[in-house]
Write a structure and sequence with these properties.
The structure holds two protein chains of two kinds. By secondary structure, chain A is mainly α. Chain A contains 15 helices and no strands. Chain A has a single domain, classed as MetI-like (MetI-like fold, Orthogonal Bundle), CATH 1.10.3720. Helix content of chain B is 47%, strand content 16%. Classes of the chains: A mainly alpha, B alpha/beta.
Chain lengths: 306, 455
Amino acid sequence: MTKKRGHFMIFLLLAPALLITLTFYLVPGILTGAMSFTNMDHRLTWNFVGFSNYVAMFKDTILSRVFWNTILYVFGTLLLFNVTFGLLIALATSYIAERHGEKPSLFFRALWLLPRFTPPIVYGVIWLWILDPTRNGLLNGVLNWFGQKPVSWISEFPMAVIVLTNGVIGASFGMILFYSAITSISREYNWAAAVDGAGWLHRIRYVTLPLIRWPLLFVTAYQTLSLLTSYEYILILTGGGPFYKTTVWSLYAYNEAFGGYYASYRFGYATALTLGLVIVSIIASVIYWRVFRFREMMSEPKIEVI
Amino acid sequence: MKRLPLFLVFALALLLAFSLGAAAQEVITIRAWTVGPDTPAFHRAENLVTAGERLNKMLEIVGADVRVEVDADFWTDEWDSFRRRIILASEEGNPDVVPDIIVSSHLDIPVWAPAGWIVSLDEYIDQYWESTYQDFFPHLWGAVSYEGKRYGVPQDIEVRMVFYRKDHLRSLGWTEDEIADLPRRVEEREFLLSDLQDLAQEMVDAGLADYGMVHRPTQGPDFFQILVAYGGQYYDPDTDKLVIDKEALELTLQFFADNVERGLTPAGMTTWPWPAVHRAIAEEGSAGMQITGGMWFWAEWQRDLGIPEEDLWENLTWSLIPAGNEKGRPNQLGQPLAYMLSGPSRNKDLAFLLITLASEVDLNTRHSLEAAKLAIRRSQTAFPLFQENSYLAEAAKLTPHQIFNATHPAAGRYLAVLHEAIGGVETGAITPKEGVELIVQRMNQAVEGDQLIIR
């Protein structure tokens, strides 16, 4: 009786989450999967065409370009900004907190959070002004002072632009997690290391970094998956151009479905592309799970530390 | 407090109901979605609202118990978001969501009509033929027809042109007479695309402009003008099929590749934001010429950039797109916008009456003047306000060389892939030959093989 009741309680507690997952993830997922076997266009007719969308993916000469863009964008943003730069801000602000108190540190962290609070369109428009190819842009205005000709920043450094603009936002996620992890490290470790003669750099290398290993791995894994599916800032800034130089996989799928002056409405092909992305994400998740030993992180600690 | 006797409450309620009933008017709401995206074109929505006011006045005079309320919305974001909104609403098909009237490009008709999202207007147009529609320029009806039926009422038409900085021409030693003669030389093939390139080169070499020739950064039907200038064909009206004219396409792509190679056009032209293009040509003169410009820019430059019209006359002149070779011809493309009736609308008769009233000569003319668009009715050209506007009169001289887009469901796809290939050759990612192959491949992906003529 009690066991049955217990099962019922578990079901009851899980029901809201289950319902949401079913309605907003599983059902659309299945529909998307089914749609990828049709040649559905704007008329939304389910005309099944077998594997032809998947065959078309292999014939699509643009797709290899898009694939390498995606790799460059995801790992470029991840390694340069979301992890490394996020860590640097966290270290710097925790150092400021330690030396000068919490308030100045809070100020700098809040500053780095600003891009994340800014609505994407506003953020995009600000960057468009900074990078404007004429003298009216911020950067070209500065060049103009020195008598230089304006530079078409977006077309000359397309990948750098999208990595930078996404990275400035992405860094704050790592910053928050790393900062709280760093400040929760018990001070005795640092004191002990300082007594043994370790300098600031050595304390980071031998005390801080090993102790924030899990947040580091988590941010890496989580941000890989979120970058794989993110395209909104690229869409606003470059639209994927010039000529696919900044088109990542998810944006390519979006453009095939809805993009352009005349939306393509190639829902069948677009959904096949997104399904490809789902498979890549699953593979990435499994690799991270295995390599980073997430099971270990999730399990209860074997020894109680402090 | 003492309660009111029940019968008194009843009597009061009855009285109230009667007095309300006597004044009750049926109010029918007609909803319209219209688009700029150029902000000066706001009369696309406003004219419908005014039409509603006029209709209400007539109803009041004749003592009818019905009034119309017009809820018209004007879209100034980009074309693709406007279309996406219509597509998503139309797919749902809910008459409470889908507007009764849509104002959009005539190019949407071959896509939306077969889907059943808009209805044929033949029967409605005939109802008002004598009073209104016989006055429309006849060639416009062809542009709003699909498979022999009219699905739109033309709302406006424009010409697209090449803009030149007159101040730079003067600096290069051109006399006022020579500048004034340029449009004629273009029209009579004395001045070709290669001369346009050379002129741009002179402007850059003389340090007058950073770029000699800019073009619209976004997708648009304008690029077919260059194809026609090189003698190409993009549509075969006899078979109703799109044409992939490989030779002319390669010449077109070569033209854009050469412009970048010679430093006339920035390699990333397709990533420029629109305002940067407008400022470069109209405000700063950092661009010497703009191909694929449109006559409505004139209104945008005044309204959005605040440039006085005298300055525009002082600094800018325009012409057709010059011919590229002996096979080609100078031309310009027009893209009529049209009123359409949505399939799910519950009030089609009333909505069409509003369209008819919004097409009155004075209302269409105020749109023409504000948005810098051409007349669509014969009577407009005799309307004093229209005649006084010298810009419209001058721009209208390009009309005889007008070409239209193909009325084909995949015409939009075609202009998108052409733009894609132009971006590719400009950035040096592909050669013009590879660009042509890309166009063939992309069109084959989207269009049934027998719907294309590749040659």
